[in-house]
Amino acid sequence: ASPGPHPPPAIRVRPLTCTETRRGDRRVVHSLGDGTVHVSAARHDATFGFSAVFDAGASQEAVFEGSGMRQLVELAIDGFSSTVFAFGQTGSGKTYTLMGPLAQSKAQPAAPALLGLMQRSFACLLERSRSCGSELALSASYLEIYNEQVRDLLSPGPPCALPLRWSKTCGFYVENALSVDFESLEAIADLLLQALRPPHCPPAGSQRRRTSAHALNKHSSRSHALLTIHVRSRAHELLVPVRAPLHPLSPAGHCISLLAKARGKRMHIPYRDSKLTRLLARSLGGSGVTLMVACISPSSRCLSETLSTLHYASRARRVTTRP
Q1: Cys-Cys with 220: which of 214, 247, 249, 285 at CB 3.0–4.6 Å?
Q2: What are the residue boundaries of the Kinesin motor domain, all occurrences included (predicted)?
């Protein structure tokens, strides 16, 4: 079966923060409403074209429907390996886009309208799973890559490094990674909400991740997280990973640049340069369907990083995979 057109890179422009407004930052990024982003500042005047651009007023639902995320979930159920990742500088809105507000917990969940791409994808998967009766089984694994070490964020006990292996059937995979079955939105959402527990709670899930303060984010992650949802057919033992890396994937930038230049030519792509790119090799330029959500700040103080993200997303548009 043909997967149809690939979801294009989606651009999301967050609002100016209260801090940026108080200190007088200028808004230098504007969505023109026709799939274009205009950057206007001293010595910089550039327009970038994309198929999907969401400005500061776009709702979470609009991003889910307009980015191609629902299509990605449907393709995963049809048997295609599907990946979504967010890219952008710290404080550009990646976590909000993927997970919703930071201030949420099991006791105080986020309002339904504010839920991010991941929770909406889970709901879509579970809805389709129930419509299929007992044919589909869903499970999740959650890994962190930090300083070229892979850790399992779901396993109990002290975190330890896990080996990365290769097989002809699976490609690169993490040996002994724990996979947890789930049958409800609450169960899978809890894996993500563990990241938002207050510091006095026992470490689990994303709260075990490496973080440090940053000028734009007091709790900036210093690692990459890879949440994988496995969609398995009980009848055929089909395994389809729906991967959702949670934070910027700068090590993948070099691979994407070379893939964009290749344009059908035989060219060496250095997937083996990092464990992150090894695990994402099929997603970046192989047999998967991949959606990139590039998040940018409209602030004049973030101009350099914003331009870098837009150029990166423009290169990613030229990369094609063969699902």
Answers
A1: 214
A2: 6-319
